[in-house]
Amino acid sequence: MKNPIENLNKIFDSRIRLGIMSALMVNESVNFNDLKQLLDITDGNLASHLKTLEENNFIKIEKGFIGKKTNTTYSVTKEGEKAFKSHLEALEKMIRAIE
């Protein structure tokens, strides 16, 4: 019997990281406040998960200003896009195996 979870990426095990990647895959970039509101999580929780994704080179960060306020936006890297798509394919195969 083949291991059904061997191709899943552990980085995406968290539902929050899954939500962040899902939002970034369908948008060119998303700023911190929009991600926080979309996922309904705290600043610290979001920052922690963003850091994990950044450390794994799955997202990139751009810091700028809108007027005098800082604006930090996030987008998916090519490596992140490839890893996330592979993860989704592995999930799909796992789900189809139990149908």
Q: What's the layout of helices and strands?
A:
Elements (H helix, E strand, L loop, with lengths): L14 H11 L4 E2 H8 L3 H13 L3 E8 L2 E8 L1 H21 L1
Antiparallel strand pairs: 1-3, 2-3
Brief synopsis:
This is Transcriptional regulator. The chain is an alpha+beta fold and 99 residues long.
Query: How many alpha or pi helices?
Result: 4
The main sheet comes to: 3 strands, antiparallel
| Count of β-strands | 3
CATH superfamily: Winged helix-like DNA-binding domain superfamily/Winged helix DNA-binding domain
Question: Helix content range of the residues, please?
Answer: 40-55%
Spatial order of strands in the largest sheet: 1-3-2
Q: Can you tell me the CATH topology? A: Arc Repressor Mutant, subunit A
Number of domains: 1
Q: Report how far the terminal alpha carbons are from each other.
A: 16 Å
Coarse structural class:
alpha+beta
Tertiary shape = elongated
Portion in strands:
15-25%
Keywords:
single chain, 99 residues, alpha+beta, Arc Repressor Mutant, subunit A, 54% helix, elongated, WH_DNA-bd_dom, WH_DNA-bd_sf
What does this structure look like?
The protein has helices at 15-25, 32-39, 43-55, 78-98; strands at residues 30-31, 59-66, 69-76. The protein is α+β, with helices and mostly antiparallel strands and 99 residues long. It is built from 4 helices and 3 strands. The chain has one domain: Orthogonal Bundle (Arc Repressor Mutant, subunit A). Pfam families: HTH_34. Residues 16-95 form the Winged helix DNA-binding domain. It comes from Filimonas effusa.
